[in-house]
Design a protein that fits this description.
By secondary structure, this protein is an alpha/beta fold. The protein folds into 3 domains: 47 residues, 434 Repressor (Amino-terminal Domain) (Orthogonal Bundle); 131 residues, Rossmann fold (3-Layer(aba) Sandwich), CATH 3.40.50.2300; 132 residues, Response regulator (Rossmann fold, 3-Layer(aba) Sandwich). Helices cover 45% and strands 17% of the residues. The chain has 13 helices and 12 strands. The strands form 2 sheets. Strands 2-1-3-4-5-11 form a 6-stranded parallel sheet, sandwiched between helices. Strand 8, helix 11 and strand 9 form a beta-alpha-beta unit. Helix 2 packs across helix 3 and helix 10 crosses helix 11. The longest helix has 16 residues.
Length: 334
């Protein structure tokens, strides 16, 4: 088992100061005898050396800990990002500590304050509200923070996110090209900047259509849940008395709830329905329908978030305030 400085000093008979100077490569600068240097180095070569992380952190004003704050770690997307970010942190000697906010700004602010008080080196944050002044870290200045997945327009912070606007444009185009002449986009609240960007992408493609007002619909709910999706679909069927040819879903939960509503009302999912989603789901494997899925690159998102945060921790200024990561579009049964 590797030895501490205290143990090395005890076993070799030299002082802790002498052992420390040898370990730090400063033996010659402080005129440590060749005999003492050789004895200490031989001992370390045989037994190894275990440094005191707490003492090292105090000296360097570093905790080698990074905080991750997300709305729901149980969400498959955030879970995959957390796993990728944890692997990246581990490679660089950092420990990742994760917490969820449940989309509650008060819990988010408390989490930031607690991380700052505990001296974490930086935070990756999926915000539930526009950026405000961040708490000070254990060192002077704001706690280094990278906002992740969500970009509030006009925000001056550093952001790493998928290109939700461009993804929604491409998804809408593909559903139209597959034969849908009318589309309903069922989604959560546009107060979420990711949802808002997807709505804008959808509208940018459909706005110039000659029958845009009657053939293309955005239906949103404050509940980004299965029940929210179920309610949106039921309301649409009540108001229009039929399914559109194309359905887009802003989240996995909305997708699941809406599909349940269709089965409840119609007895089955019509095979002619063309589906587009922003998340993978096992349901897709059992649907006979043409389905398009926007797939986010979780590994690249985690990598870029870590790179940007590392620059901020080194007190460097990243070149881009907002770094967009491209998505992939996957299609099934076409």
């Amino acid at each position: 088992m590797p030895k501490t400085i205290k143990e090395i000093a005890h076993d070799t008979g030299y002082s802790r100061t002498t052992v420390t100077l040898v370990i730090n490569g400063k033996a010659d600068n402080y005129r440590i005898s060749p005999k003492a240097k050789a004895a200490i180095e031989a001992y370390i070569a045989k037994h190894g050396y275990r440094y005191n992380q707490a003492a090292r952190s105090l000296k360097l004003a570093r905790s080698h800990t990074i905080g991750l704050i997300v709305p729901d770690i149980g969400n498959a997307f955030f879970a995959r990002v957390a796993a990728a970010l944890e692997r990246r942190c581990r490679q660089e000697g950092f420990v990742l500590v994760t917490t969820s906010t449940g989309e509650d700004p008060a819990i988010e602010r408390l989490a930031l304050e607690n991380f700052a008080a505990r001296g974490v080196d930086g935070v990756v944050l999926t915000p539930s509200e526009p950026r405000r002044r961040l708490p000070a870290g254990s060192r002077k200045g704001e706690l280094p923070t990278v906002q992740f997945d969500r970009y509030y327009e006009g925000d001056g912070g550093f952001v790493v996110t998928s290109h939700h606007f461009a993804s929604a444009e491409l998804l809408t185009e593909r559903v139209l090209e597959a034969g849908a002449t009318d589309i309903a986009f069922l989604t959560g609240s546009p107060s979420n900047p990711t949802t808002l960007q997807r709505i804008k992408g959808f509208e940018s493609i459909t706005a110039d259509h000659r029958r845009a007002r009657t053939m293309f619909h955005v239906c949103s709910s404050d509940m980004d849940t299965e029940e929210g999706g179920h309610g949106l679909m039921m309301d649409f069927l009540d108001n229009h008395h039929r399914l559109p040819q194309g359905l887009l879903f802003g989240s996995l939960l909305i997708f699941h709830g809406a599909m349940r509503a269709i089965r409840t009302r119609l007895g089955s999912i019509p095979t002619t329905l063309i589906v587009g989603t922003f998340a993978e789901s096992n349901i897709i494997e059992y649907l006979p329908n043409p389905v398009f899925v926007v797939r986010q690159n979780e590994s690249e998102l985690a990598e870029q978030a870590f790179r940007t945060l590392a620059q901020l921790m080194r007190k460097e200024t990243p070149e881009e305030h907002v770094h967009f990561v491209a998505t992939d579009l996957v299609q099934y049964r076409l």
